[in-house]
Amino acid sequence: MSVAVILLALAAGAYFVAVLEGWATHGRLRLAGPALAAAALVGRESLLPRKNDRLFFEAGPVLLLVAGVLAAAVIPLAPGLIITDLATGALFLNAALAYVLVALIMAGWGPNGAYAMIAGWRFLGQFLAYAMLIVMPITAVAMRAESLMNTEIVASQAQLWNAIYQPVGFVLFVVAALGLAYLPPFDLPLAPGELAGGVEAEYTGARLAVIRLGRMVVIVALAGATVTFYLGGWLGPWLPGWAWSAIKTLAVTALMLAAGRYMPRIREERFLALCWKLGIPLALANIFIVGVIALVVPI
pTM to 2 decimals? Predict the structure, then answer.
């Protein structure tokens, strides 16, 4: 029962992301827009590039979708409402999301096209930048909870959310999430203005629908992870736990989709330099501060 509920919630969340992204891009809120766009894509012929690597070309979109679903499998919506509550759930989520890189490299290499290949390698540059900014804030979160179980991490925030307890880690994690979901200002793997769609450039029909759905699911999973690690998960007054999880996840999703569009686009090498020269020292400082506070004033 939990599996069906969470998969249904994930599908609804992905649809909501598509609605919000259309609104942020075109300025029009069309509730039926994603459904009509998906129907149009599925109805179109799915073309194959002339000299493609068929295995990579077919597997890339599917792997992106699978990575998002696996990450969502360890995110709790409420007590008992989780697909699998692993003892190393926080690390499993990070490991599942690592396959987003593999999926985009495959989607970039498979078509044997210049634009797609450049976009795939651009995402590799972004991965080198944000990878540590995913793991190191999770380390600080786990230190406070004294556990890698996501349900325990949520329970540890009963008195104070981690977004307040460790704001530096929260900001770093959100920045890394934007890079992982290749949302503005880190959307260079798509780069519609210069690469004509980037990793999506050579995909049409149902394959394009799958790769876009996979990206929506990854965004929802990242928003759910942010809520679990930093915003108290299902904790909240009056409403049932699942309702609080849904409200917080949708709010974080809206923030991720909207905030980056008011920032200048940043190249992958600049992103890499900022993350390694500034982000990693801040993440290390965050771990140190959280450890000292946990020893002196446990919260």
Answer: 0.90
